[in-house]
Amino acid sequence: MGCAGSTPKTDDNSKKLKKPKPWKHNQAITTTRLKQMRDEFWDTAPHYGGQKEIWDALRAAAEAELSLAQTIVDSAGIIVSNSDMTICYDEREFRLQSSRV
């Protein structure tokens, strides 16, 4: 129950995803090296905290088209702080931060 003047709480998860700005490395790298860097990030990210399932959902969302990515994020209960998914939180509000690789 709420007060007569209270407003319903909005869902924090509802922030719409946007395509991130292009990422640039300080040195020229090959497509193979970029893929290797991405794989290293996703392989090690769960070791810094958070549930592996949430990291897996974030990876799937990062590699998907925007409309599917939005569905994945919403379904996993991921709280998106930045619309480019560089800062997200899981349902227990553990910070999940990407390195934009």
From TrEMBL:
UniProt organism field: Oryza glumipatula
PANTHER family: UBIQUITIN DOMAIN CONTAINING 1 PROTEIN-RELATED
Protein name, UniProt field: DC-UbP/UBTD2 N-terminal domain-containing protein
Entries under InterPro entries matching the protein: DC-UbP/UBTD2_N, DC-UbP/UBTD2_N_sf, UBTD1/2
Coiled coil: none
Location of region: Disordered: 1-25
DC-UbP/UBTD2 N-terminal domain sequence ranges: 14-92
Pfam families, per the entry: UBD
